[in-house]
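chain below, 90 aa
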Amino acid sequence: MLATLSPKGQIVLPVAMRRRLHLNPGSTVDIEERAEGVFIRPAGPRPLPPAKGTGADLLRQIDAGEFGVGVDWVRVKAAVARRARSRDLR
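prediction:
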């Protein structure tokens, strides 16, 4: 099966393959270079922050460790707190 490399260097997997492998936005894949080429396999889901909710809800979820690794949650938490304070001042 063919995949396309975007101008930004991203690999675009065909829809049928993404569905078969249960790859959704935010899913992670493990990429391994081998002598015969590149091997890509699902590495498990990577939870994403919720699309809705208050800043306080998001801060509680971050503190509870409900999200995956790979994100600087200290910076995210600080940004959410700043946003929540600026909304309270309006």
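Residues 73-88 form the longest helix (16 residues). The CA atoms of residues 12 and 74 lie 31 Å apart.
thats it, cya
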